[in-house]
Amino acid sequence: METASHCQCECGAASFSVRGAPLMRGFCHCTICQAFNEAPFADITLFRRRDVEMPAADSVAYRNYASPAMLYRGKCVKCHKPAVEYMDFPLMPDVVIVPTGTISNQAIVPSPTLHIFYDKRQQDVDDGLPKHRGYLASQCAFGWHLLKALAKK
Ligand SMILES: [Zn+2]
Ligand SMILES: [Zn+2]
């Protein structure tokens, strides 16, 4: 039986639930993630789209920042904190990105496996995880980790 976990933005207006275990977790240091999260890097956990009960449409404002293409980033309309992000790209796996800190049941959160866009970092991270630099290497590493996770689940 799969358990449901609750996720919500800082104020709680954008809330939703996820089922089962996430696919993977990683850190993104790209400048868009830095701005979007108002943090040196993003700590993100990925779920299959079908495992996510998306928040009410009027509680989240989505924006496409063009890079990476087809990634829609949603912020709560009330507190303007990150709520959820989703990819809408033909032939790509349907995944939803959840800011790790918004998951209430941290027991389901997996260990992170990589850093991407590390060349854009605001701070060094000494955690022994692979660090990928540059657009192509970062996208490839991320895609590879995601495909491996999808194959396992
Ligand atoms: Zn909020
Ligand atoms: Zn990023």
Could you please describe the fold and organization of this structure?
The structure is a single chain. With 153 residues, the chain is α+β, with helices and mostly antiparallel strands. The chain has one domain: glutathione-dependent formaldehyde- activating enzyme (gfa). It has two helices and ten strands; from the N terminus they run E-E-E-H-E-E-E-E-E-E-E-H. It has a seven-stranded mixed beta sheet. Strand 6 (60-64) and strand 7 form a beta hairpin. It is globular. 35% of the residues are buried.
Summarize the structure.
The protein is of the alpha+beta class and 153 residues long. The chain has helices spanning 31-37, 135-152, and strands at residues 4-8, 15-19, 24-28, 42-48, 52-53, 60-64, 71-76, 82-87, 95-99, 115-116.
Helix segment tally: 2
Distance between the termini: 15 Å
Tell me the β content. 25-35%
CATH topology: glutathione-dependent formaldehyde- activating enzyme (gfa)
Could you name the CATH class? Alpha Beta
Q: What is the number of strand segments? A: 10
Low-confidence stretches: none
Lateral strand order in the biggest sheet: 6-7-8-9-4-3-10
Shape: globular
Small molecules bound:
zinc ion
Any guess at the CATH architecture?
Alpha-Beta Complex
Q: Helices and strands: which structural class?
A: alpha+beta
CATH-wise, what's the superfamily? glutathione-dependent formaldehyde- activating enzyme (gfa)
Mean pLDDT reading: 93
Q: What is the subunit arrangement here? A: single chain
| Radius of gyration over C-alpha positions, nearest whole angstrom | 15 Å
The succession of helices and strands, N to C, reads EEEHEEEEEEEH
Sheet of most strands: 7 strands, mixed
Helix content: 10-25%
Number of domains: 1
